[in-house]
Design brief:
The structure holds 2 protein chains of 2 kinds.
Chain A (H helix, E strand, L loop, with lengths): L3 E5 L2 E5 L5 H8 L7 E4 L2 E3 L14 E9 L2
Chain B lengths: L9 E3 L2 E3 L3 E4 L6 H11 L3 E8 L10 H4 L6 E4 L7 H15 L3 E4 L12 H13 L3 E6 L3 H10 L3 E4 L13 H10 L5 E3 L5 H10 L3 E4 L1 H4 L4 H21 L20
Parallel strand pairs in B: 3-4, 3-10, 4-5, 6-7, 7-8, 9-10
Antiparallel strand pairs in B: 1-2
Classes of the chains: A mainly beta, B alpha/beta.
């Protein structure tokens, strides 16, 4: 795989190597137990993080719970 | 002597709660204050929002570090969603993050009233229920729309008492009474409570529970107000169960007239 450009929470990000969702979360430094991930408007189950390869043009949303009413 | 049921609990979606106060976790000065106020409120269920993680500060403390989801039932909301599609996407993420399917649906109109958009709410409720969610739904005090939501399968009906965050108190006692009368699932007043007496009034009307956030978070002393709300909800519930005396136009002396000295 060459370079791939993906969008994470609205920000462009360049991947230089083949990367899984699990790899990306580890690079960012997030606690996997506290977040949820959507890839191209589809949920990525936690069980699939290590199996899901990111591809050029992917749009990810990584969310967590915050205070709300 | 004690005629009030010992365990006056309520249930929604198979979960049983002793506290009839549900509180939001927004608008606090800090996560420490959030945790202290929620503990003082005695609430067992708390509403939470779903938002993007701050990628530039991934190690920042998270709500879950202060308000333990093992202790409190998280009720993820759809605040900020204006379409059924956004609401479904948001709550699918919440379900993945939290692993449960009990959610609060709210689809709002524009400021300054943020009044529930009932057409969009009905569409979103239908989509969420089809997707396996158990939906507690914020709604207008509209008996026709509320009945439709109940018939769709919503597990709790949650009309406003006044606009969100307004603190104007219960402005619609007559409409709430109609809704309480017709609704077979739990009915919570959600939005409008400003101070303890408002929460007591909602409970005296016969609501199942009260949901509030700003009234505690924006009080001068949130932790003390949280305790006031706990007591007010309990007092209002007891007054409802005790059945208030009839109102009468004239006075009725409390002391006997017989036996007065001459």
């Amino acid at each position: 795989m060459g370079e791939a450009t993906i969008t994470v929470n609205g920000q462009a990000r360049t991947l230089h190597d083949a990367t899984t969702v699990a790899g990306l979360l580890a690079t960012i430094g997030l606690d996997l137990r506290k977040v949820a991930v959507e890839r191209n408007e589809e949920i990525v189950p936690k069980s699939a993080y290590a199996l899901t390869m990111l591809a050029d043009g992917d749009a990810l949303e990584i969310v967590h719970f915050i205070g709300g009413g | 002597m004690d005629s009030v049921p010992v365990a006056d609990t309520w249930s929604v979606a198979g979960r049983t709660f002793a506290s009839r106060l549900v509180v939001g976790t927004g608008k606090y000065k800090s996560l420490e204050e959030t945790a202290a106020a929620i503990a003082a409120s005695g609430a067992e269920m708390v509403t939470v929002a779903v938002r993007r993680v701050n990628l530039s500060d991934p190690g920042a403390p998270m709500l879950q570090d202060f308000v333990d989801p093992k202790v409190y039932t998280y009720l993820p909301n759809t605040a900020g969603c204006h379409t059924a599609k956004d609401a479904v996407r948001t709550l699918r993420l919440a379900r993945e993050a939290g692993g449960w399917n009990l959610v609060k649906l709210e689809v709002l109109g524009p400021p300054p009233h943020l009044y529930p958009d009932m057409q969009a709410t009905l569409e979103a409720a239908e989509a969420l229920i089809r997707d396996g969610f158990e939906v507690m739904v914020y709604c207008a005090d509209d008996p026709v729309a509320a009945k439709r939501l109940e018939d769709l399968g919503c597990v709790a009906i949650m009309p406003l008492g006044a606009p969100i965050g307004s603190g104007l108190g219960i402005q619609n006692a007559a409409m709430l009474s109609l809704l309480i009368e017709q609704t077979k699932v739990p009915l919570l007043v959600d939005a409008g409570v400003g101070t303890a007496s408002d929460a007591a009034i909602a409970m005296e009307l016969g609501c199942t529970a009260v949901l509030l956030n700003s009234a505690i978070a924006h009080a001068g002393d949130p932790v003390t107000m949280a305790r006031a709300m706990k007591l007010a909800v309990e007092a209002g519930r007891l007054a409802f169960l005790a059945k208030r005396m009839p109102r009468r136009m004239g006075a009725d002396p409390s002391s006997p007239l017989a036996g007065l000295i001459r």
